[in-house]
Specification:
Oligomer: homotetramer
Strand content of chain A: 35-45%
Number of strands of chain A: 13
Helix content of chain A: 10-25%
Order of helices and strands of chain A: EEEHHHEEEEEEHHEEEE
Radius of gyration of chain A: 23 Å
Shape of chain A: globular
Chain lengths: 274, 274, 274, 274
Amino acid sequence: MAIVLGANRYGKAETRLVKVDRDSDTHRLVDLNVSTALSGDMADTHLTGANDKVLATDTQKNTVLAFARDGIGQIEDFGLRLARHFVGGPIHGARIDIEQYPWTRMGQHSFTRSGEGTRLAVVRFDGATATVKGGIKDLTVLNTTGSEFWGYPRDEYTTLPETKDRILATAVTAKWTFASTDVDWAKAFETARTSLLEAFADTYSYSLQQTLYAMGSRVLTNVTEISEIRLSLPNKHHYLCDLSPFGLDNPGEVFQVGDRPYGLIEGTVRREDR
Amino acid sequence: MAIVLGANRYGKAETRLVKVDRDSDTHRLVDLNVSTALSGDMADTHLTGANDKVLATDTQKNTVLAFARDGIGQIEDFGLRLARHFVGGPIHGARIDIEQYPWTRMGQHSFTRSGEGTRLAVVRFDGATATVKGGIKDLTVLNTTGSEFWGYPRDEYTTLPETKDRILATAVTAKWTFASTDVDWAKAFETARTSLLEAFADTYSYSLQQTLYAMGSRVLTNVTEISEIRLSLPNKHHYLCDLSPFGLDNPGEVFQVGDRPYGLIEGTVRREDR
Amino acid sequence: MAIVLGANRYGKAETRLVKVDRDSDTHRLVDLNVSTALSGDMADTHLTGANDKVLATDTQKNTVLAFARDGIGQIEDFGLRLARHFVGGPIHGARIDIEQYPWTRMGQHSFTRSGEGTRLAVVRFDGATATVKGGIKDLTVLNTTGSEFWGYPRDEYTTLPETKDRILATAVTAKWTFASTDVDWAKAFETARTSLLEAFADTYSYSLQQTLYAMGSRVLTNVTEISEIRLSLPNKHHYLCDLSPFGLDNPGEVFQVGDRPYGLIEGTVRREDR
Amino acid sequence: MAIVLGANRYGKAETRLVKVDRDSDTHRLVDLNVSTALSGDMADTHLTGANDKVLATDTQKNTVLAFARDGIGQIEDFGLRLARHFVGGPIHGARIDIEQYPWTRMGQHSFTRSGEGTRLAVVRFDGATATVKGGIKDLTVLNTTGSEFWGYPRDEYTTLPETKDRILATAVTAKWTFASTDVDWAKAFETARTSLLEAFADTYSYSLQQTLYAMGSRVLTNVTEISEIRLSLPNKHHYLCDLSPFGLDNPGEVFQVGDRPYGLIEGTVRREDR
């Protein structure tokens, strides 16, 4: 059997970019982390070192910066503009990953960095079809009650006691697929984000899986342009402390927070013809 | 010359602790990272391995958890309770470091983690006197304009062009010393935090040092119980992109964000009899 | 269209585990990070909160720890044992991810942590077939010369000067697929690791893609049990400093090291019938 | 009371720099992280924004890069050259912090990054006197046996069981002060590093404090130019797993590794006239 080149791609990862819109006295700020990845007819550079079909990753970075000059707009659109630009000739496919960091205004020209979730976009273009995903990560949420966990099977390795009241906490990563590119991206993002938060808060939970499904289906219900959502939810364990050696009770008041290990619940919710 | 033991201390670092106050239907949440460090007559354990004067760091952790059962209150007070408890017998001094993470309420029992600065307290007790520091870290702020930097000396290694308009961005770390322990801690923190943000936003800046002094003096002006404040301000460089090779101007619109190196400006502002 | 549950899995991530083999005076140490993920008939817990088919992630962790008691052996084998244990009843598939940290012996019972690459294994079992991947990550390598980059197309966004001599540095992540489970895992890992290092060092490189292919094909040549290898190579840019403003030349001597952005070259090398 | 400026300094932090020595066919590599901090007559820039006494942090970075062109030599010497250069006129003091990352040679021009400790230097110069500290950090070590912990007092918050056999693991951070600047720096570092490792490995330990003192005094014994050493040793807890619920014993074989909290033992060992 011969040894051959398989799937491959190359690009410039994590170009950190701030765009200031100064067209009024009240400046607007867009803070991005942009990664580009291209694929196509790249056998030569792998096999012989000939680079005549390689768009240098430095050029990819320059392109991102130059395109920003005209304004970013919504990150899904910015990704589409970039992806469509890159594809052509030996380049058959482009993938653009964008992270947008949240800032809170505190003056006409002044901002504080907020922590309530990084917005995501992943845009792919293959020369014919563009697909767009939106998303969010690092959206950390916690319910102090309204979560139970019991009724799971007990095998020879099971020691976990059942609980009718626990803290439920997670750092949401969600990516949703749009059915088209004709979408009000800003409204879709805000509605999806709000849906995730509200479903987390108002679901009485018997498992993090159940909460995951509630969050995903709420997004699909509220944003009709989204065909599928994938959620990755670490179960950030809060361990109820045993204070009985110190003569104290602990009715759901004092918890030690663990770093590792953590539960990791991943699942997809999607639309289906029936 | 003999080899001898010098200054030393030991403790339990980074006990991660959540306290839920459930005394009403609207739960309150306190999320802490607590570190304890004790010092005193510790020669034996260093020199012979005898541990009869060592309060095990596991016991220190248990103490933190047990004390939380009665409620945290303000973190400065929680630190004072712990420090005063630990000192006695062979233990001559205690230092308690507390970080408090900010959460935003989104329901009676539901919260989202905010990113706008971690509150700090450092409490020391030596058996006679308690000193308290408050503070904040990871408070990231940015001005899109209102910052110049010019007039600095040019030596043989100077290449930086002068600028009359730049982005100024930093992640504030501040620690302030209270002149007493008879303070409304919550009000002091909120006033200090607001003062830092407002002084950053409304200072027209010719150097980050000038902004630092403005922030520090604003805090001292507005919180009379604070005798001294120390600020550490990384200058998070935003480099204006040269888009001229692409036939584009760039009037303060597109910036690349650097990770390293960064400027680091540190300074103290304090009260003094004159 | 209805909203339905799609692909999903759940498990315990990052159980950090040390196993000491004490059967001779010279102890052996195995230091692991183990993640388990199970999938199967999990609709109930997502849709109704019924947990009777959910193997609690705490139980998964206990199983990992208990299985370690009998000895780890090679991590590929440990993963196979775990994966085969978990599958059955409502659990149709298991994926076990293991990281093994390298330590260097400095005594019969004493070790120092080495940095030269974390060994990886990914084992999947679906009730019928087991597949095993091996790998390595965080293997950072650098050539001070023997790397050129030129001949790439210049479009309107290209400013990068061509170079006939540059530093080439990367942090290797590689995952290789074994064609069977009847393999001398330890020998395969050592041979693959050595092949990666040697191919990196002795390939005169015209692009990191070329180096990637050389590394991948070297592994396939030297380890016949491997059918495919996927490499992810960040191009850790070392920028030659322009010292001419200071009256100094710089013939490949002084470099500034960038954090972000970085090139990212990813590719697969595999066997193919011809 | 007036509000006044207190102690302050400013500089460029974390300039990442690689120097290649190409004067023979076998290249040598020095990989550094350099931070500079200057202090002096800096009231103007804080109070009025006048920058005529401010050596721009960009200039400080350029100076570091230009000085590297002549060769780094030992990092203590490189720090001394830089510190002495910066002080003069309004600049009354300089502090240079250097980290040197370890690499292992695998060819004439090829290297792998090693993880066995980052070398440190801290150089201060005040216009008259230079002081030099050396050090190491991230040197992670582990003994599988030869460590006990018992005999500590039991108060109402003590639950830790005593142990006659445990894993002892730490990530060493050490900084040592040289009594002069007339030192064979390379030899001093190697001897100090070896002394730390050997003392950790061959000390039968009743507490991490005892191990700390053994490590510090070993360094002072073996490197006569060092007057004082400060050690910071996190106790990286390895918890013996209770496998009895699964019908298994665990005679010091299987441990879960904790991230937080961790013990933190800090102490100084120094020479003293008697």
